[in-house]
Give the backbone structure.
Amino acid sequence: MCRGSCQVLLNSPGGNGGIIDVASSTEDFRKTTLRKFKQLVVERIQAPNLGIIGNEDVGFMFRSKQLEEEKTFAYYGIKPMSTIVMVVRLPGG
């Protein structure tokens, strides 16, 4: 159950993470896709600070699993105040 807004903790390269407001209700939080979350994160931290060209360079991990954009928080068992790790894909190889 969320009070005010449902949030997650974001660990990101460069320390630009923090608390991200995801939804105003638990139901909406559970239905949030990783694609929508990515949009929130990119807007929040202003990805150019990381040298990211676009949000296609950003991915997320939770409990050591790479998260797929079309899946929801409920699918992965992500609850309010869970910690999600942001991964930045770098060009090159």
Observations:
- The radius of gyration is 13 Å.
- The first helix runs from residue 26 to 31.
